[in-house]
Amino acid sequence: MSKKNNTAGILAGLLAGAAAGVVLGMLYAPEEGKETRKKIKNKAEDLKDQAKNKYGEVSEKVKGQYESISSTFKETANNVAHTVKDGYDKYKDQIVSKTTDMVKDVESGLNDLKN
């Protein structure tokens, strides 16, 4: 999660820096105020569009990574569950077999004592 926050922070910082640089450059350019304001407005719209595009790209990338990680986690959890179940079944069968053998041995021993 912190990597995502770092990426978003870096992206926001880059966009803010670019916007500030453009605005300062235009304010100090030797042009009429009306023309400068028009350029600032156009550049702000361009930057807004770029930010939306980057947000969309980053959002899609994060969604893709989430889906990939989620799928991998589900698959791993499934494998672990099957491994545990298989182990349980294996040892259960061994215990039942050994218990059955012990019961037979005890019954045999009791029969020998009776005779």
UniProtKB/TrEMBL annotation:
InterPro entries: Desiccation-related_membrane (IPR052928), YtxH (IPR024623). SUPFAM superfamilies: Apolipoprotein A-I. It comes from the Bacteria. This is Gas vesicle protein. The lineage of its organism: Bacteria, Pseudomonadati, Bacteroidota, Flavobacteriia, Flavobacteriales.
